[in-house]
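Reopening this one. Same input as before:
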Amino acid sequence: MSYLDSPRLHFNGWFQADVSTINNDVTAFDTGPSAGPPDPGWNPEGTGIFRLVDCAVTGGFLDGRPLSAGDDPAIGMTIENADERPPGKLVDLDPQQQMVSMIFGMQVRLVSSSLQTILRGEFKPAPFINLWQRQITGLRTDQKLGAMYQSVLERVTWSEEPESPLVRALREASQSRKLSIEFAVYGYGRDPKIPRYTMGRVAGTIGPSRSGEPDHFVMGRQMIAPGPLFGTPPGRVGTLQAKVAKDGRSITVDFGNSFQVETADSGLVDIGKVLFGVLTTNPDTVQKSVAESGIAIIGEVPYRNANWYTQTAGIETFDLSGNAAAAKYLLDCPLVVVSPSAAAASGYDVRLQESISGLYVRADQFVFRIDPGETQTVDFCATRFGAPLAGAGIALSNGGPFLAQLGGTPPDLSVPPSGVNVPPASGPPVVITTDSHGHAAFSLKANADGPTLNGDAWPRGYLAGQLYALGYQLEKQPVTYVSSTGNFVSILAYSRRHNPNNVPPTWYDDIQPLFAQYGKLYPIMSKYVVDLSDYASVVTRLSALSLAFSLPQSDPNHMPVTRDLGLADRQMILQWLATKGADGLPPLGTPRPAPAVATTQAETRATGVDLDPMQQAGKTAVILKYERLSGKGAK
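Same output, byte for byte:
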């Protein structure tokens, strides 16, 4: 079960993403004597906070019918974050991979009008997916992009006896103290001149979760929008997923990230009548149009109805019990989103079609941070028309070329290739085979020496670690298949800390080079908490720093906020913080001599693109750089 199943509740409101922008450029990590001041970007004092703001339950679904205000006590309750700890954090994987921004340490609560916490759960860290140009007008910044997050709430606790039948049903349907959660984010405000600066719109759903199902996508029907990366698809309807009920009597579709908005403060754009249906044949290509005889209509998408999106978060359940025609073709033919033909008196224009032959493969978690010598598991799931695809080969390949287009150069990515056991760029793919449940696993292993190149544990110079990518697709995939944007696994392999003689760390030799970077990248910390570049300031915060560096990545107080420092480096920092010299303070050591030759900032800066003042950093710059390097542009 998932958020597309019943029972479920829908919420609507705002989110805040107070991201820091100094670290969007790799040259900002340079703390050498020739390094200039970093490009501050548009939010240089960002805290990294991600939180839900003014979110309320606006609707629900129970016992086969939608719920609105007055139908259940849960409608009108608020969706809030933690009340006894800080909000979550939003961080990129790396300055050269900013297209998988990930939420860590967020707690989600359902709170009654009497301020009682009805349920409380921990959001399992997840990156966004299905990034596209959802907003039509406005500044050409991140504000125009929309995306979605899907994950689970773990370790869920409930009040003893909720008064709401919807909440009681949700509790009874959940397993392993988990719930499924999904939310679309859009209309983000990057302009400091507007009141909603660092805030955007959010619409989401919470539903049951069952053991053995993916945490980050639905084991259901997948409809992938073709078109330019980060652009507007030709059918003007974005990628979505759907699920047929177990009894076959209904199908639920998530349109939450599929319809465009004119501005962040407007409703959904009217693109005319939109219908949902199933083709009566299984074509081997994406159709542009279909005759009336070639489709069984399931129902009209009521996206133009007042308050539909607010109350449902774009989740629509269609009744199939009286639709014998649709039921006949549903198991073996593609779903489609159509509109009455604009060029003919009859028939339909296809806006979105299910994947060719209903085939789909996904890595459940597709972002990994891995330490030297560590092994982590990448779980894959393959389906055909929503059913598990057993015995299917999944071809794993080197995804470095696509990753390099997103990150640009310099510095080079995926170097050395031995840092992680992804298949070599010039070699054949590695094929794994799904089991009877459509699942397959790949053991992702980092080299024990980390991404060390010619004895250098930092192959990207002053930027620690290295980025790798694992590409994947079905081994037997139709030639005309349309793949999801960014359909690869992103990996940050941490650098190894070489200390064969176990020499105790000192400030000048080991700690200051690391802390100086973070002092430069997070000026708000130096301004209000501790100046990480200054020994005298650091030693006044020993207890707080020891706690922050010892916390797991999932904790909102984990340090560093960007989660780009490996376990060995954090252990070294903790060792130094705990070591006391004759003066009772961590050892200072001897200052390092200045290097004879230093690489200038101009020599290492990647070739950029011409941007106006509101486009100096962030995902907009990355997107435009990708379009320039690949020769692709959003139309």
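So the earlier flakiness isn't reproducible anymore. For the record, Residues 597-616 have pLDDT under 50 and may be disordered.
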